[in-house]
Amino acid sequence: MTDRQTAPDFTLPQDGGDPVTLSALRPSPVVLFFYPRDNTSGCTKEAKAFTALQADFEAAGAKVFGISKDDIAAHGKFRAKQELGIPLLSDAEGTTCEDYGVWKEKSMYGKMFWGIVRSTFLIDGDGNIAREWRKVKVDGHAEEVLDAVKAL
Questions:
Q1: Would you say 90 and 99 are in contact if contact means Cβ atoms under 8 Å apart?
Q2: Mind telling me the catalytic residues?
Q3: What is the distance between the alpha carbons of residues 26 and 31, in angstroms, rounded to a whole number?
Q4: Which stretches does DSSP call E strand in the chain?
């Protein structure tokens, strides 16, 4: 068994609930999916995929959270409009995004800008990163993450 990296701890506000502190969720496994922006096509598809499998994640004992830099009000509107069941956390300051290495320089139509690179982290019950997915392609991703949770 290789040494696993300890997941950076955080406390972030969630839409419609109390702030979430990662270390307080132990010993449950935790899935964190970082996404660029509320109400964009890829982000909506990803959040809906995790919502569709929410009962399966819960049955496996895992808690799932989406994280972006959008504020709590935007998250609330996004969840209501898309009927999302997954709690969304706001990292408005970007500290958690930086701690997880998902805040990167990106390019679109020849223009460079900073943004969140779609990434997912599976954190085991001891608070270590068990698996990470970078530059995620949405199709089939939530199912792959669920399989990894079940394999813990």
A1: no
A2: 43
A3: 12
A4: 11-14, 17-21, 30-34, 63-68, 88-90, 103-108, 111-116, 119-123, 129-133
Per-domain residue ranges for the chain? 11-151
Q: How far apart are CA 3 and CA 17, in angstroms?
A: 34
Phi, psi for 128 (deg, rounded to 5)? -105, 150
For domain 11-151, give the fold.
Answer: Glutaredoxin (3.40.30)
Q: What is the pLDDT along the chain (152 residues), one digit of tens a residue?
A: 345 799 999 999 998 889 999 999 999 999 999 999 999 999 999 999 999 999 999 999 999 999 999 999 999 999 999 999 999 999 999 999 999 999 988 887 888 888 899 999 999 999 999 999 999 999 999 999 999 999 99
Give me the phi and psi of 134, to 5 degrees please: -110, 150
Cβ proximity of 22 and 31 under 8 Å: no
The pTM score is 0.93
Residue type, position 122, single letter: L
Q: How far apart are CA 27 and CA 140, in angstroms?
A: 27
